[in-house]
Every structure is written in structure tokens, then in C-alpha cells.
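ERR on first pass: missing label on line 2. Operator R.T. fixed the label and resubmitted. Corrected input:
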Amino acid sequence: MAQVPPLPLGPSAGVPGSVPNQLSIETTVQQERDLAQPGVRPDEFGGAAELGFWRLSVIRFLHHRVATGALIILGVIVLAAIVVPIITGDLYRIQDYRHPYKPPFQSLQHIFGTDDLGRDEFARLLRGARVSIMVGVLAVVGYLLIGGTLGALAGYYGGWLDNALMRFTDIIISAPFLLVVIAVTAATGGVRLTTVIIVIAATGWYEIGRLMRAQFLVLREQEFVQAARALGASNTRIILRHILPNALAPIIVSATLGVSGIILLEAALGFLGYSIPPPEPSWGNMLQEFEQYLLDDKTYLVFFPATALVITALCINLVGDGIRDALDPRQR
Amino acid sequence: MTFYVVRRLAIGVFLLFLMSAMFFTLTRVTPGAPISVGENPRIHQSVIILRLHRLGLTDEKGNPYPIPQQYVLYMGALLHGDLGDSYVYNRPVTTLLMQRLPNSILLLGAALLVALAIGIPLGIFAATHQYSKTDMTTSLLSYVGVSIPSFVLGLYLLIIFGAFLKQSPLHWGFPLFGMHSGGVDDPVDLLYHMVLPVTSLAILQIAIFSRFMRASMLEVLHQDYIRTARAKGLSIEKVNYKHALRNAILPIITLVAIAIPQIVNGAIITEGIFSWPGTGQLAFQAVVDRDYPVILGVVMLVAAGTVLFNLIADVTYGVADPRIRY
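pass 2 clean. output:
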């Protein structure tokens, strides 16, 4: 091609279907190859620039070493949570009264030792990881569905919906969130994981809702929206095609950070006995017997679940901050 | 100003009404609860009916009131300062709350003071020494601090000081205010018992305060009037602590108001872990016992407190910063 753009991620970067697989900025070879492909042109709606933005963000994220490291650790945890319980099977609930309180790092059979009922702590930890991650991800999807939709509608149309959203937020913020979730969980008839997820999603979405509303309030007044309206685009089309893609960046960051908040909340609920019931382990309910463990000097049984929680939450927060920096480099 | 305060108070009362209706309905549609107390076959039917009537659930003959009527009864009693009776303790919720409240205020107040006393100077220092080693360390630690929930921190502290160092009162039995010796009569003993719970509650707030203070201070330090003050020949100390600090510290007022409900939230579990006899532990125990009138009472108390503190924060902010008009 005639010219190579000065920035490696110029208008041609957004070739549909091309996944960014280079870690470095020196992508000119790939660039030229992209440009050499006939028929691939940025469409007139600026779709190429959009893809370029996301691709650029991925590269910026991967240059952030701490965030990348955290993402790798997180990946290992998620992978282990998916794979290991399949291998260990029922080990997490098989009780062995001959070997309770086996200390950790003594045998390969029970690498993290066993708990008061002789159950393998390692298998329980990873089984618990499944619960935490599942609740975290599903509840955040709930946040996005409820908060995203209501926030977008409130920001775009305003009116009573906007008022209702703000008052609901006021109520939720002024109540002790933990007690709210507990009261709702109890009222909806007992402690099942689905209930916990629904309750967390139904009470915690307001933050993303408010963020989405703020984004829509700003964006709906901008020229490109007016232009779209002048061209005859319907409200649905303006919301979905024109405003939503531009409003997404802070929502993604908030959703990522939301996952760690939910995991910690679920642990607190499990700790109080208001999450998944035993024998199914979760990081929260594994800590329920902490008094007994501490008095018996079995500190590792408190240490492992607590540390699993902290590491996971920390990694998610680091990844979230990495995403924030990547999506909005001006904020650094 | 007066109009603003009255309007805010009216909105606050309206919010509390909404919330009470929401929670009241939630706790009343919950299956079981106080009826299970009456399942003992040896208790005479009339006693059960009397008890349910006293709890505001049925009329004298044992016919259950519909939930709206129960709510009206509850709110009527609430206006007389009566939050109903606890299912478990068989005593008025107000009495239970008032008994525990001083303990909680002591603990939460201490945690807030410690957080302010450490977090703000730390943030100021980090901002005035931007990119120094202390700044980096502070940022890193505040990052970790935000990711550790206070109850996990409490468990870590118990592992370290209780199990390893054998220094903390791990096996508790902390005396209630006024009921046993110790407490306020023995300040040294009291402080000794307060160290761990206060630490576990304060760390998160220290992290938040120092982060916020750093950002706020940096923003002010980059403004023109600071450069002007320096150009006039004022010393760095005078500019930093006299010109910059005054403006940078203003937003902290709002932050404190936000921090209070957070600390209360954390205290529910932290007080339970450390057996601190406050309202948090009362709520913790009520949650375990499913003692709904107590849960409802704590929720209402915290909500009222939050609404009030938010109002106080906004008014104080207006007093501190005359540019703000209501």
C-alpha cells in the first residue's frame, strides 16, 4: 500500500475478525498485511475507529505489567476452579474421621491438610472458588442487565423513571447493605445460591445504574446524537448503536470492580450462614467455625479461605484498574 | 439555609418511611419466625395468642392482622419510641439497642478517629512527596487495604495476635458496660480490648482517607494560586500547610459522612468476631437467630443515622466553604 500510518493503530487497525496477538507496538508488518487485504475498508460509521479503540486498549492493558500479572493469576484461579473439582470429584465432602486436622504441606494426598471432619481442604477451597466466581460473575451480569437498562432509560428519557432510580439509590445507600441482603434472602424463603445471586443483583445494581444514567445524560446532548436524530434514527437505534458503545468504558470498569465486591459480600453472607448451605463449601462458610479452629490452634483452616478471598479480590481490583487505565489513558 | 435543612429533613423522613415499609413487609412475609416459638405443645394456646397479640401480629382472639394493619400498628408504636419486642430476648428492641449503642459508638468513634488521625497526614505526606518511596508504599498499602474486607482483616489479626502471639484476649468474655468490672471503670483494660477491633475497622478507612486526601491535595497543589504564593516567596511549608491544606481538606467532610455507614456495615461482622457487645453484635446475633424485630430495629437506627449524618455533612460543608449556596 501507498502509505503506512504513523501510528501503528491507525484507521486500518480495525479489521473485523482480527484478534490482536502482538504484545508490542511494532505491528507495522501486520498493518501492511491488513492494508494489503482487498475489500477491507473502515465503514462510514467509523466502525474501524471503534475497533481500533478496543484493540488499542487491549495493547495498553497488556503493557500494564501489574494488571497483566493479576489477570494471569486470576486466570489460573478460574481455570483451577473449573478443572480441579472435576478431577477431585466428591473429595470435598468425603469425611475421614481417622484423619481430622491433618496439617498442611505434609503429604501429597492432602496438600492443604484436612478440616475438623477430615475433609480435604484443597478440594474444598477450589470447590468454594467455583461458588465465589459463579456468584460474582452472574450477579454482575444481573447488575448490567438491571442497572444498565434502567440507567440508560433514565438517562435518555428522564422523567419519573429517573426520579424512581435516584430515590431507590437513596434508600439502598442509607441502609446497611449486609442487613438488607440478609433480610431479603430470609424473606424469599431460605438460602439457595440462586436466591443469593438474585438478591445481590436486585439490590446492588444501583451503582452501575447511576453510572449509566450519568453517561447517557452527557452523551444524549452531544452533536453526534443530534446528527443521528436529524438523519431519522429511532430512539432505540440511537440508544443501542450511537450512545451505548460510547458509554461502555466506565461501565466495564465498574462491572469488573463489582465482581470483587460481590465475592466479598457473598463471603460475608456465607460467614453468617446466609449463603450456600453445607456440605457445599464456600469461602465464607468455611470460615464459620473460626472460633473453634483458632482455639484448637488450627490457624491454617482460617488462613487458607481468608487468603483465597483476599488474593482473588486483590487481583480483580488490579485488573479493573488496569482496564480503567487502558480505556482512559488521560486519567493516569 | 433553614429551608434547605427542612426540605432535606422532610426527604429523609420520607425515605425512612419508604424503607420501613419495605423492610417491614419483607420481615413479615418471611415464613416461620415468631410462630415457631409457639410450637411447644406444652404451652397453652391462650399464652401463645397473648404473645402473638403483644407482638402486634394478631388480635385478642388470635386472628392474624393483615400486613398493612400490622405496619400501621408498628409505625404507631414507633412514633412513641417503641420498636416492638425481640422474639428471642422477650424484651423491647429499644431497650436492647440503647444498652448496646454506647459500646458501638465508642468502638466506631475510635475507629473513625484513628482512621482520620492516620489517613489524612499520610495522604498529605504522600501528596507533598509525590513519587517518593513513602508515596509508593502508601499507594500500595492503601490498595491492599481496600481489597481486604474488615472481617477478613479481623480474622488475620486473630490469627497473628491470638493464635501465634498469644497476646490478645482471644478467648473473650468481654464485660458489658456497667454490668461487670472493667469497661469504662478500667480504661487500660478497655483500650486493650479495643486495639484489635479498632484496627480491623480502621484500616479500610485509613486506605480510603489517605488515597482521597492525596488526590485532593495534589489537585490543589497544581492550581494557580499555589504557584502565585510560591512566586511571592512564601516557604514551601507555609504554602503547603496554610494555603493548600485548607482547600484540600474540605471534601473530607463528605467522605466522613460516607465512611460512617461503611464502618457500621463492617462493624456488624467485626463486632461479632471480637465479641464486642455493641449493636453490630446484636445484629449479628439477630441474624443468626432470625430475630426480625431486632434486625428491623438496627436497620431503622442505621438508616436514620445515615440520613442525619449526610445532612450534617452537607450543612457543615456549606459552612466550611462559603462558595456553596443552597
